[in-house]
Amino acid sequence: MLTASLKSQLSEGLPEERSEHRQKKVIKMGNCCERAANFFGPQKNTYIRVSLPAVCFVWQIAMVVLFGVFIRYDEESDEKGWNEFKKSHNITSNIENDFYFRYPSFQDVHVMIFVGFGFLMTFLKRYSFGGVGFNFLIAAFGLQWALLMQGWFHALDPVTGKITIGIESLINADFCCAGSLIAYGALLGKVSPVQLMVVTLFGVTLFAVEEYIILDLFHCRDAGGAMVIHTFGGYYGLAISWVLYRPNLNLSKRLNGSVYHSDLFAMIGALFLWMFWPSFNSAITNHGAGQHRTVINTYLALASCVLTTFAISSMSQKKGKLDMVHIQNASLAAGVAMGTAAELMITPYGSIIVGFCCGIISTFGYLYVTPFLEKKLKLQDTCGIHNLHAVPGMLGGFVGAIVAATATEEIYGKEGLIETFDLTGKFENRTMSTQGGYQAAGTCVAIAFGLVGGVCVGFILRFPIWGDPADDFCFDDEAYWELPEDEETIPPVLEYNNHMVNKHHDTHESQFSLEES
Amino acid sequence: MLTASLKSQLSEGLPEERSEHRQKKVIKMGNCCERAANFFGPQKNTYIRVSLPAVCFVWQIAMVVLFGVFIRYDEESDEKGWNEFKKSHNITSNIENDFYFRYPSFQDVHVMIFVGFGFLMTFLKRYSFGGVGFNFLIAAFGLQWALLMQGWFHALDPVTGKITIGIESLINADFCCAGSLIAYGALLGKVSPVQLMVVTLFGVTLFAVEEYIILDLFHCRDAGGAMVIHTFGGYYGLAISWVLYRPNLNLSKRLNGSVYHSDLFAMIGALFLWMFWPSFNSAITNHGAGQHRTVINTYLALASCVLTTFAISSMSQKKGKLDMVHIQNASLAAGVAMGTAAELMITPYGSIIVGFCCGIISTFGYLYVTPFLEKKLKLQDTCGIHNLHAVPGMLGGFVGAIVAATATEEIYGKEGLIETFDLTGKFENRTMSTQGGYQAAGTCVAIAFGLVGGVCVGFILRFPIWGDPADDFCFDDEAYWELPEDEETIPPVLEYNNHMVNKHHDTHESQFSLEES
Amino acid sequence: MLTASLKSQLSEGLPEERSEHRQKKVIKMGNCCERAANFFGPQKNTYIRVSLPAVCFVWQIAMVVLFGVFIRYDEESDEKGWNEFKKSHNITSNIENDFYFRYPSFQDVHVMIFVGFGFLMTFLKRYSFGGVGFNFLIAAFGLQWALLMQGWFHALDPVTGKITIGIESLINADFCCAGSLIAYGALLGKVSPVQLMVVTLFGVTLFAVEEYIILDLFHCRDAGGAMVIHTFGGYYGLAISWVLYRPNLNLSKRLNGSVYHSDLFAMIGALFLWMFWPSFNSAITNHGAGQHRTVINTYLALASCVLTTFAISSMSQKKGKLDMVHIQNASLAAGVAMGTAAELMITPYGSIIVGFCCGIISTFGYLYVTPFLEKKLKLQDTCGIHNLHAVPGMLGGFVGAIVAATATEEIYGKEGLIETFDLTGKFENRTMSTQGGYQAAGTCVAIAFGLVGGVCVGFILRFPIWGDPADDFCFDDEAYWELPEDEETIPPVLEYNNHMVNKHHDTHESQFSLEES
């Protein structure tokens, strides 16, 4: 009896956190039981020991074979070819090699793909490994597949049957991956790496086709890929996520959020994207004034976007506090929206206006549209790619159409107009308003490819063979990663230090604690 | 009675940390009460829901209008202009566009401004969001305002009344922001974002004026901005901080320090600053040997500085332990101090000597001068910009003066001397010793502008309308950011994992814990 | 008696973690006692307050003197020299300065050295400061010493007795440091900074000699340093670590591992290495097609390597979970292995095959070879440099030998073959198979220098004067860094926030807690 009373006293004496903790434990055990029950019924299993290595090996071996058959160096990277090219084009200096025009931009784009996208997706408290790690995996696969797909559509030599690649091909391959990485943003935490490989395989394939239609058939300009990358990638991801809707995702709610330091990791990604977006948009524009102007326009639009993002973020909260989700994402929307128009003569203030609007639209999207989509359309969009890529991309497509339609010889010069829109060959007589119309049509093609392709791929991903996590096991690196021991179990170093300082005291204390225990 | 005895037993049984924790809680509650009392009297309020959006919107709309009126592409980024420029200058290759000389350096500078300065200021344990986030905000605003201010002073076409911008303007705009970001270093954690916008508005304005005096009227050389950026920015920040002295800042003492991982985030910023400082100093120097030499000099000085910083840091502690504050900051001082002299023929060993001295001076500053300033001059300098920017910048100005004064035709060649110091037009007959004198005078102008401007801006910031935090609410992101839940409340994933493994045991335990709770 | 009973009750009532914690404390105290005992006997002492500053100052002063005697600007960075060079070589544009060919690659290499290597070594839970901080120190020293050593061997003007440096020298100096930083990987956490300075002093010296033999005497091609950097650095580190074997290292076992966020910091380093490896391999290759091709080859090999790394990592674990150690390290092995062959015409699919194999070999190394080395060969290799540098480097050397031996005029063109292998002067008549033989021999030289040099340096490091930590004090920043207070002691901000919201409740609670305590 005394024991009982003591027990109750003791449990009263225990700190609140502990009892809370215990309650949590109980809740979790509830989940465990449920899961144990599921074990013998139909259920999800994150076992990927066969499927992931199989997919990686099969596809990588396919790459070896296909590269062996198709891919060769182009004339600027081939030793013999470049020497001949220099002679035939009467070039005296190696600095004329396309490499020196494109390499700094390429490396910036490369950083955006791997550190930018990768770390932007580390914001979840317990899915940072998955965010940056799977981004790494699918980008590394995607760029190889992209070199082949884009090569077949754009650079296949009809005589030799070979694809020749150079620095511009590498940039385009990185761009092509970006489409699938954007789609990953909507799926973050809810799919297995094997599913992501499938998303990337089809994503890159669809990308190459829509890019062929938009850039080659429609002859649109889209250097920074507002249409072909962001609009397509955004709607592709949203459509997949819509098909893969999880009604019980709130079982993983406790992990669908950030912690202080995970938000800082995400900020690394966000800043590298923001800083290098001028390189992204200018990487494959025309040499000279084209690249130069694209950088200026993107730089200004992004700066302007930051201010309106902060403004709307602050206005949206009762006390005017800022939300890291907006700062990390909405401030990038201007880069997306300038994807098409940045290389055109949109003027500096035009760029600032685009940035101004994007910050507002994108932040509103995070505040109202994403929750609306989830509730009403049953569309779970982990990173809010709807507001960062889909809508700004679409907007960018239409802005590009308007700027193209209003282009005149007066502004560009006769030569400049032809160069900028590449009005040669069969497009020699295209008027600017026609060009504008095609640009707008291109945007619609990108949306259509994204939505239709995404729905199809979504259904493929619903086969129960891909090892995706159960609804109560989402947003959790535990599913696919061997995790290190918890931070809380680090032996308290400082305490240790104190012991070293107060050595004599320790000796006594240690005896005491030895007795006590 | 038994209860009482038990209670005392229980509290004895409780670990020391807990009772400490409780004590802290009580102290904090004391603060709370005090604050609650203040609520009805005169007090600080961090409510910025109206002021921050208002400032952002008004200023950004002003930017749209002013850019519309004034800013145009320059002849190297304008489609028509570049084609005409190539013809008129007989240029055959696009690689001659200034873009290809400057773009890699520009991107490095851009990284320094946003990731370098931003992450260097994440070192505080609970002000990392504010460090990197507000840095982002004010740099994005500052660079737009800088393009206008610097344009009016340096690039206004008297005929058309327009400012034309190119890649060099973007670099200069980034530089101009740096002045205000340095000032932010002294104010970190003690001001509101609205105040920072004011600091930046005036900072950029003052910068453009002092830069006009130093570079145009005095015709000084200062490519890396030892004078115009670092000396000015440093003293500007110190003067503001002096006016905004908070006698009760020790109420926030518990948050004025780092934790293990916040120091690592800061190290990212420090390293990007350190690595890219050669680009910073060389970004706008003369093409060819000028840029080349600047990089070599800065690289050597920085390397040398690291060793003396480690040496002094180790010597200063009883057991020879190193201090992260020194490593993150003092090792950068050489970059600042080489800001003026790096483009001159200071010789490689001259650069190493400058770095050698800077590491010592700056580390001593952190050890003795910053505490002294705080105690005796009532100057609270959160990041120690006195030791990283103000003093090394001033030093750099005088080093530059000496190197300029000792320049000879023998070293530079006749042509080289004219090119390096731009001794054309009305400066054709200036002697090197005169040049040195002007360089020294320029440093004094930078100090004066910083101090006087800072005091004035400081008084503006003392109006009680800016939403700055109370003395016990400094260094706390809680004031301006919606923070994610605490890390300690992450459900322990490993435990969870263990449950999965020992599923059968769990079932029993769970029953037990259900009973118990 | 009641007290005793209560005590036992109390200790029963305490949560398990706590008692575990206490047990740990006791164990640690055991260590303390042991250490206290050692204090009066022979023991390790991490006191470096004299030795570290002494080494830093002496060596840095030596640098000043030696730079003053030997180092000058080269003709492309000297103001007068460049003007004369332009005239004598009939160059009209500054863009022909080597600076514009190399600077973007140089900055990428610089990032790899300081952020790449530095952050890759932050993965340990309590040695992140040491990882990134000591990397910073030794690289900053090493690059100065490298400029001298490499200058003496490669660039000493026999007439003037001076070494002239330019951008390529800076890249080579960074490369030279890389050798010692790789060695640091094997020693991470087990040596003092003073020892690391010794490792670097000898490492750079040995590097310069073996580089002279391999590149100058044997006339090998090794632009990315598979042989001279990675093979040498890897075996150098392994040999030192073997000599410094610590039989009781398991006393520090609790700290020899990562935590969640330290793995993310390491991922920053890994990704920057991965992304910029194309720049590393191409930084000093021939202008034009040479640099261009090297980038393509390295890019493809790295992408391919990622997929096989993920595959093997997943296969190796019972449930198919991925291991961050593999992802961070093995995915980089392809960059190492392409160090020699990347500039040759290895073909795109050849690169992919190399990457394919490297991912497998390196991951297997982490799984089986490192534990085997530790158990059987008594070789403790903290970062697994055996699998990331030593073996892939050796492999890369032999791949390079094969590709060189099979080079033909048909593939390279006559001119191209001469340029690529620099077959001029006394090497004019060397056949390709001879070249291949020398390449293979060069790899063996690198291994020999690494092993023999490492053993010698290892014995030097065993003198008991360097301040290295005791076996139970390894992997602990506590030894050499003033650490900030523990994260767990941050006052709980959210709780604080709750108090602000529920102000009235607080008042009561605070009274209560005042009473209670």
From TrEMBL, chains A, B, C:
InterPro entries: Ammonium/urea_transptr (IPR029020), NH4_transpt_AmtB-like_dom (IPR024041), RhesusRHD (IPR002229)
Pfam families assigned to the protein according to its UniProt record, in alphabetical order: Ammonium_transp
Any Gene Ontology CC annotation: plasma membrane
Keyword annotations of the record: Ammonia transport, Cell membrane, Glycoprotein, Membrane, Transmembrane, Transmembrane helix, Transport
Segments for region (Disordered): 1-22
One Gene Ontology term from the biological process aspect of the record: ammonium homeostasis
Keyword Cell wall biogenesis/degradation: no
Record domain Ammonium transporter AmtB-like: where: 99-475
Signal peptide segment: none
Annotated TM spans: 50-73, 109-127, 134-153, 165-187, 194-215, 227-245, 257-276, 296-315, 327-346, 352-369, 440-461
Keyword Transmembrane helix included in the entry's annotation: yes
Major localisation: membrane
Localization in the cell: Cell membrane
Family as reported in the entry's similarity comment: Belongs to the ammonium transporter (TC 2.A.49) family. Rh subfamily.
Reported function: Functions as an ammonia transporter. May play a role in the elimination of ammonia in the gill.
UniProt subunit comment: Homotrimer.
Record's protein name: Rh family, C glycoprotein, like 1
Origin species: Oreochromis niloticus (Nile tilapia)
